[in-house]
Amino acid sequence: MDKQAKIVVLTQGFVVAGLVEEHTTGALTIYAASVIRLWGTTKGLGELAFNGPTQKTVLDPAGIVDVPSHAVVMQITIKSDPKLWGWTI
User: pTM to 2 decimals?
Assistant: First the structure.
């Protein structure tokens, strides 16, 4: 399966960025995942998706995260250079 760079909003207020693999069940595996503790933006998550992390963004490395389908609120495809996030695709 192909992995896509995404920001994933989860229940309980968690927001995770990483390389997302979607399973046929709707569950996700997020590789090179980071929990976004502080967005550090003036225009929300969309700003992160288009421009990458700011100097004020706080990312907490989380490794590989498995997410059940019922916990996914929304997914935002990252359009910024994956290298800004420390990923190679």
Answer: 0.94
